[in-house]
Amino acid sequence: MNMNDFSAAFGTALHLIIHLDTDLVAIVLLSLQVSLSAVLLAACIGLPIGAAVAVFRFPGRGVIIVLLNALMGLPPVVVGLMVYLMLSRAGPLGELGLLFTPMAMVIAQSLLVTPIIAALTRQTVADLHDEYAEQLRSMGVGPLRAIGTLLWDGRFSLLTGILAGFGRASAEVGAVIIVGGNINHVTRVMTTTIALETSKGNLALALGLGLILMLLALAVNGAAQVLRDSAQRAYG
Amino acid sequence: MLRRAFLVTLITLFVTLPLSAAERFITVASTTSTENSGLFDYLLPKFTEKTGIEARVVAVGTGQAIELARKGDADVLFVHHKPSEEKFVADGQGVKRFDVMYNDFVIVGPKSDPAGVKGMKDAAGAMKKIADSDSPFASRGDDSGTHKMELGLWKNAGVDVKAASGGWYRETGSGMGATLNTAGGMDAYALTDRATWLNFANKGDLEIVVEGDPKLFNQYGIILVNPEKHPHVKVKDGQAFIDWILSPEGQQVINGYEIKGHQAFFANASGS
Question: Among A113, A124, A42, A31, which Cα is nearest to A73's?
Fold first, then answer.
């Protein structure tokens, strides 16, 4: 790889974007679809778990917190392997026939992302809870309703945690390549395409695709920012 | 408004996730060499056009492909290590094995050729020289068909590569293309199938140094996964794929696939 390859990569990326290669568009859409779905699923699970751990006091809570924080570092390839063994025809969920489908990729990525969202939510909600515990108690708000209130109150900070989760999901290759199989036109996403083109020795094309993936991340984060701003204006 | 639109978009994305079983398809466990060579991109659309069956290829090393099939996660196995394939069938995992096509392996290495093997016709002899001169050699190290072939050649050459692991003998544990990238990066020799080599775009300073030894013969075989072991196997459509590959038409398609003017695979089904 030399400087020429870098400029070739920029050229390739530009060419691919301008010409809207149909295969590329399909791959980009599938990437977005899989990762956004995974993040949505992970948020539905991670937000309540994180908030509950922050608000409730129970034995073993400290252990759970350490566990949640540690699980943020789950290696994608290990998650991929676990999901593969679950979804394999020889595994407990083999009957569902989900292996090598986009749904399998969503499951793997949401397993990766859930601890990230849960751990960051726990911290955010715990900080808010410290601040408002007195007030909530004086208003006679029980812990369950407190969770809802605090999640709503912390929504702008929580968005950052969700975006961190999206970053993790859209950037990983280890899990999706195992459970998706990188099947052309079925489960091939941006990261697995980059891995494939690298192994074909098409380094400029691979790097060009990498640039497009970074643009996508930028677009998603930009959209989130616009959303946050408009919401902040609306609610003050 | 904006937020509601956003939420609706997200949920729509989720709900419209394509699920399996919507279309007629089979899953083929195959090797990185067939994928990286570009053969499938050329061959599969022709099969789908003829039969209406989509063939979904999961391209991994031969060892992993066999493992996938053994777990029942593929309908058809299309790999290149005859002894492992015969064992797969003997174990009752596969119905029957057929020869499909062949090409050959080549040894590639840096143009400077530190081991002095360029032009040799004896693969094992060349590998002995590489070992004796402590020249770096990048091995797949991933239990793939190419890796198994390489280990056989070392055995022929009487070289104990285990002792040299981490020294001049470097196991990448990766696919063919990734290993070639590594070999190019450290001026190492490597064993590769010819099709992947022809299609490989990052050759850098590497070139073919040894070819033409009959021992470097690379046979591909195809097997239907045994439905008695794995009731999910799509017998009819899987068999249709095998029948088409072995038919004069399929064989002609294989022979017609060229990379930069070179025929990449040579069909040799026995025409049964």
Answer: A113
In chain B, what residues touch A103 (CB-CB under 8 Å)?
17, 19-20
Helix segments in chain A, DSSP class H: 3-19, 22-55, 61-71, 76-87, 102-138, 143-153, 155-171, 174-180, 190-199, 203-235
The pair of three-digit structure tokens given for residue A208, joined into one six-digit string: 């060009």
Taking residue B146's Cβ as centre, other Cβ atoms within 10 Å add up to 27
DSSP H helices, A154-202, are 155-171, 174-180, 190-199
**Residues B61 and B32 sit within 8 Å (Cβ to Cβ):** yes
Which chain A residues touch B40 with a CB distance below 8 Å?
Answer: 184
d(CA B30, CA B77): 6
Please indicate whether, in this complex, the C-beta atoms of A88 and B73 are within 8 angstroms of each other: yes
The string of pLDDT tens digits covering residues A101-156 is 999 999 999 999 999 999 999 999 999 999 998 898 898 888 889 999 999 999 98
Q: Report the residue from A106, A184, A202 with minimal CB separation from B201.
A: A202
Provide the angle, in degrees to the nearest 10, between the axes of the packed helices B123-132 and B145-157: 80
Q: Per the domain annotation, does A48 fall within a domain? A: yes
Tell me the pTM: 0.88
**How far does Cα A175 stand from its chain's mean position?**
12
Q: Which domains does chain B have, with CATH numbers?
A: 22-102+219-267 (3.40.190.10), 104-216 (3.40.190.10)
Total domains, chain A: 1
Q: Does A32 touch chain B (CB under 8 A)?
A: yes
Query: Residues B223, B94: contact at Cβ < 8 Å?
Result: yes
Please check whether residue A68 lies inside any domain of the structure.
yes
